[in-house]
Amino acid sequence: MTPVPGRLAVIDMQRVFADPASPWVTPRYADAAAGVRALLPAFAGRVTFTRFIAPREPSGAWRAYYARWPFALQPPDAGLWQLTDGFGDLAEHVVDAPTFGKWTPRLAARLAPDERLVLAGVSTDCCVLSTALAAADAGTRVTVVADACAGVDDDSHLRALRVMALYGPLIEVTTVADLLAEPGT
To answer: pLDDT tens digit string along 85-112?
Structure first.
């Protein structure tokens, strides 16, 4: 497969978002996972997986958040935080963050100057959105692959994609097929 320019960040493809019994289940997780799998060969050697993890000790507004979701106060090696669907075996580079946004210094350091960041994963309306906006604010060109993402529900997914599209040309929303068919790929 011809490489696609840029770096791929796969946001939070974790058990806590895939498990139907989880309070944080993303109903179309399997659809997003299929889209991610389709993208991986085109970004060989240029993929970062991220994981949302709980802080050791919540502070500020996060205290109220974890009071609402106490099940999530588990250490980073807990099963709910692990990558799913064989992604753990493919994850050569993983960035953990106790925040929704994954645009951290570690992720930013993975990109060359003026290199595009391609985002896929879950959930569109939380961690993908938070990552995209922060990266765009930092001056990074961001491409969000709509059918390699999933939200807490279809309406929230679509609303988040529409919001991100408003940030064009800093943020572009595309599909797996269109990204893989880009000229020069």
So the answer is: 789 888 889 999 999 999 999 999 999 9
Q: What is the DSSP letter of 16?
A: H
- Burial of 99 (C-beta count, 10 Å sphere; 0-12/13-18/19+): middle
Residue 97, Cβ density class (10 Å: 0-12 exposed, 13-18 middle, ≥19 buried): buried
Q: What is the pLDDT of residues 115-142, one digit of tens each?
A: 999 999 999 999 999 999 999 999 999 9
Rounded Cα gap, residues 104 and 110, in angstroms: 10
Taking the whole predicted model, whether its pTM rises above 0.85 is answered as yes
Lookup result for tokens 């807490």: 152
**CA gap 49, 41 in Å, rounded:** 14
Q: Which amino acid is at 29?
A: Y
Considering only CA atoms, which of 146, 162, 157 is closest in space to residue 123?
157
Dihedrals phi, psi of 164, to nearest 5 degrees: -65, -40
The β-bridge relationship of strands 47-52 and 171-174 is unpaired
Tokens 């179309």, residue located:
28
pLDDT band at residue 185 using 50, 70 and 90 as cut-offs: low
Amino acid, res. 61: A
Report which secondary-structure segment, H or E, holds 180: helix 176-180
Mean pLDDT of 162-179: 98
